[in-house]
């Protein structure tokens, strides 16, 4: 018999979203006629703008012709797409050859962990997107699990709570090789300011750490003063890798297209270019993003595509505002919903899973328990604004009824 990979055995009871699915299934078995509304998993619901879908259809049809057929493309992505990302997302601040097109930021997170290896120490925001910790555990970045603190040694949790304005208290942090930082943040909705990101870049420089900046939600930023990229901070190219994704930007969660930026200025201790190793990892583990998806990405970055993206993201941000205003009117303390389509709501005197179960029972709404994103998420629920308008209106009316009833108890 083959021995199980012990690192996998160390993963906490499954990934958060499968656990939610399990509870949802159990609820539906008991209440088969319940019409659940999901504001849980952050999956997009609105159709892909037609000019982007049409471009993919044309590419797909061309594949059926001798002239239009193409096989494997470059592992780094088609140069015209890398160029378009360089120009449209980074206004030329990052050159096309620093950009690597991929099949998703989640996959890039996994491959980055392979790049730095199981011996690397990492720091993550607490709460944070679970993939940073889980990929680290799978890589064996940690050997000991501490049940009381629910933490692994080798992984530093940086509490990000209302008390520190969702920005880690850097002076209390130990040095780690990697720092994962997501802004605008999933799940808290917090978007770091220019000053905060400057401090983070300085901190990474002083410690010789690599900052992995997850900008998957940058396209939702509405505040003109909120940085959209870590490269808006001077000198960040010497310490930071950035991840970008088409998933939420163009409804590509199922199409799969993303990118990473690994600047040439970023070097290992021995002077070797990180970009060279990243190129090696990508050429070894990956054979390039789908050529159909890449043609959609290119269409999205043309002027009409950018206009369509703005409309799509504005739609979700309107949902976010509606949800936020409803909770606030009921007296709840709410974060996020300004530069991100996530609402982070505090449920006093309840654990996150208790609040989750309560809303499932009373209003048939699926949310995401904050504690599933890390210990500092306890007592919060995350609501996703990725939903169609009818569901948001119905969810708001159900939540109003459910939470009013609770107030009167
Ligand atoms: N990073 C964050 C913070 C996310 O929330 C998500 C998806 O929800 C991802 C990365 C993964 O994005 P992709 O669909 O590109 O794999």
UniProtKB/TrEMBL annotation:
User: What EC number(s) has UniProt assigned to this enzyme?
Assistant: 2.6.1.83
Catalysis: reaction(s): (2S,6S)-2,6-diaminopimelate + 2-oxoglutarate = (S)-2,3,4,5-tetrahydrodipicolinate + L-glutamate + H2O + H(+)
Keywords associated with the record:
Aminotransferase, Pyridoxal phosphate, Transferase
One of the protein's GO biological processes:
lysine biosynthetic process via diaminopimelate, diaminopimelate-aminotransferase pathway
Which residues of the sequence carry a binding annotation for pyridoxal 5'-phosphate? 72, 105-106, 129, 186, 217, 245-247, 256, 287
**Family to which the UniProt record says this protein belongs:** Belongs to the class-I pyridoxal-phosphate-dependent aminotransferase family. LL-diaminopimelate aminotransferase subfamily.
In terms of superkingdom, the source organism counts as Bacteria
Q: What class of enzyme is it?
A: transferase
Q: Which PANTHER family match?
A: AMINOTRANSFERASE (PTHR43144)
Aminotransferase class I/classII large domain ranges (all copies): 36-398
Q: Which SUPFAM superfamilies match?
A: PLP-dependent transferases (SSF53383)
Q: Which gene encodes it?
A: aspc3
Q: Per the entry, which co-factors are needed?
A: pyridoxal 5'-phosphate
| Pathway the protein acts in | Amino-acid biosynthesis; L-lysine biosynthesis via DAP pathway; LL-2,6-diaminopimelate from (S)-tetrahydrodipicolinate (aminotransferase route): step 1/1
NCBIfam families to which the protein is assigned, alphabetical = DAPAT_plant
Instruction: Mention one GO molecular function.
Output: pyridoxal phosphate binding
Oligomeric state and interaction partners are given as:
Homodimer.
Q: Where does substrate bind?
A: 15, 42, 106, 129, 186, 287, 382
Q: What does this protein do?
A: Involved in the synthesis of meso-diaminopimelate (m-DAP or DL-DAP), required for both lysine and peptidoglycan biosynthesis. Catalyzes the direct conversion of tetrahydrodipicolinate to LL-diaminopimelate.
**The keyword Cell wall biogenesis/degradation is assigned to this record:** no
Q: Which organism is it from?
A: Candidatus Protochlamydia naegleriophila
Q: Which residues carry this modification: N6-(pyridoxal phosphate)lysine?
A: 248
Instruction: Return the protein name.
Output: LL-diaminopimelate aminotransferase
């Amino acid at each position: 018999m083959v021995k199980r990979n012990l690192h996998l055995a160390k993963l906490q009871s499954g990934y958060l979203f499968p656990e939610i699915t399990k509870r949802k299934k159990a609820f539906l078995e008991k209440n088969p006629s319940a019409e659940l509304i999901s504001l849980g998993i952050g999956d997009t619901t609105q159709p892909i703008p037609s000019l982007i879908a049409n471009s993919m259809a044309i590419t797909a049809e061309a594949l059926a012709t001798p002239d239009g057929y193409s096989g494997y493309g470059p592992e780094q992505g088609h140069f015209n797409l890398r160029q378009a990302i360089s120009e449209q997302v980074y206004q030329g601040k990052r050159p096309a050859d620093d950009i690597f097109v991929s099949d998703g930021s989640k996959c890039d997170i996994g491959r980055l962990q392979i790049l730095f290896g199981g011996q690397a120490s990492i720091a993550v925001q607490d709460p944070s997107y679970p993939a940073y910790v889980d990929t680290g555990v799978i890589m064996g970045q940690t050997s000991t699990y501490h049940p009381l603190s629910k933490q692994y040694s080798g992984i530093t949790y940086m509490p990000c709570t209302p008390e520190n304005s969702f920005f880690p208290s850097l002076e209390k942090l130990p040095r780690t090789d990697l720092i994962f930082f997501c802004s605008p943040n999933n799940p808290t909705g917090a978007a770091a300011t220019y000053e905060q990101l400057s401090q983070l870049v300085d901190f990474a420089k002083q410690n010789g750490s690599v900052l992995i900046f997850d900008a998957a939600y940058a396209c939702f930023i509405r505040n003109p003063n909120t940085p959209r990229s870590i490269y808006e901070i001077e000198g960040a190219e010497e310490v930071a890798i950035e991840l970008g994704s088409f998933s939420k930007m163009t409804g590509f969660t199922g199409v799969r297209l993303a990118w990473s930026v690994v600047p040439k200025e970023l070097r290992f201790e021995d002077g070797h270019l990180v970009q060279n190793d990243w190129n090696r990892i990508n050429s070894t583990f990956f054979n390039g993003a789908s050529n159909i998806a890449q043609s959609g990405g290119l269409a999205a970055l043309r002027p009409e595509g950018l206009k369509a993206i703005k409309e799509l993201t504005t739609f979700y941000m309107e949902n976010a505002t509606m949800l936020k205003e409803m909770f606030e009117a009921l007296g709840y303390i709410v974060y996020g919903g300004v530069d991100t389509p996530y609402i982070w709501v505090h449920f006093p005197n309840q654990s996150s899973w208790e609040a989750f179960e309560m809303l499932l029972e009373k209003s048939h709404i699926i949310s995401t328990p904050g504690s599933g994103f890390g210990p500092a998420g306890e007592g919060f629920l995350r609501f996703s604004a990725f939903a169609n308008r009818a569901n948001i209106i119905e969810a708001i009316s159900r939540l109003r009824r459910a939470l009013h009833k609770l107030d009167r108890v």
